[in-house]
Amino acid sequence: MKNFRNMVAVVIISMASNFAFSQVKPLDVELTNYQYPYKVYFYNFKSQNNDLKMAYMDVKPKAANGKTILLLHGKNFNGAYWEKTAKDLSDKGFRVIIPDQIGFGKSSKPQNYQFSFSQLADNTKAVLDKLKIDKAIVLGHSMGGMIATRFTLSYPEKVQKLILENPIGLEDYKTFAAYQTIDQAYQSELKNTAETYKNYQLKFYYDNKWKDEYQPWLDLIAGWTLHLDYPKVAWDAALTSDMIYNQPVCYEFKNIKTPTLLIIGTRDRTAIGKDRAPKELQPKMGQYQELGKKTQQQIEGSKLVEIENVGHLPHIEVYDQFWAALYGFIK
């Protein structure tokens, strides 16, 4: 009888899970059928012989304090997940610029493009130049932290302050994990589903505790996997994975002279290529409770705020603690 009840429980859980995933809507390559929280603008330009458009939101303050903040998204995200952060910043008088990087969100997905952090930083600078923004506070999360680092190193005169929220790239993944070709990465990306994405996020982002407020950010990437356009998205995802693996920024933190804040959820264990590393090295990767301190020591005069028992997404998982650290640094 006990075994029967267990079987029934498994079936019910499986049905509930399949129902949840069935609610995910197919999304096209540029998310034209998904509405962002703020008006979306496009910067049209030519790069590497591609005609591209870079989407961005420009959230105006209610009562301007004269400061602009640039929010840079992570690899498995786009600008939409900054919705609450942007609202609160706008309420405090900040102008908020939120781009979707080329290859992400509503921006172009070029299939013949050499992705580099320098190129993405240059694209981002072009948006600021178009908007006649001479200086900004720069906040980067996850992969956005690597872009923010490269942006700050390349254009220090444009960065008033730098905030890195659980950035990846605090270690050199090449020293742990074996190389995979872009073709191999592409085949791996093609296997993604709503379920595999959720399992990954549960493991690295949320410590196996799912909340309703996490669902929108899962749906955005899961929806792509249900659309005929997905191979285009998957190809750019493979190219950007290669960029992350082959273009470490961790050796250059010592060159940052801009006032810097690190916001680190110490439970985070995100690391590119962990599944390709030797078993004995995997537990040593993505140790954010150590990497945050190490990075803070490398950036002269920087400040570290550690948020205990929090994963890769402080601004989603524990927004109030994230906001207190952010606003305390920029107000």
Automatic annotation (TrEMBL):
Hydrolase as a keyword? yes
Give this protein's Gene Ontology molecular function annotations: hydrolase activity
Protein name per the record: Alpha/beta hydrolase
Which InterPro entries does the protein's record reference? AB_hydrolase_1 (IPR000073), AB_hydrolase_fold (IPR029058), AB_hydrolase_sf (IPR050266), Epox_hydrolase-like (IPR000639)
Keywords recorded for this protein, A-Z: Hydrolase, Signal
Domain of life of the native organism: Bacteria
Q: Where does the AB hydrolase-1 domain start and stop, copy by copy?
A: 68-270
A Pfam family hit? Abhydrolase_1
Family annotation (Gene3D superfamilies):
alpha/beta hydrolase (3.40.50.1820)
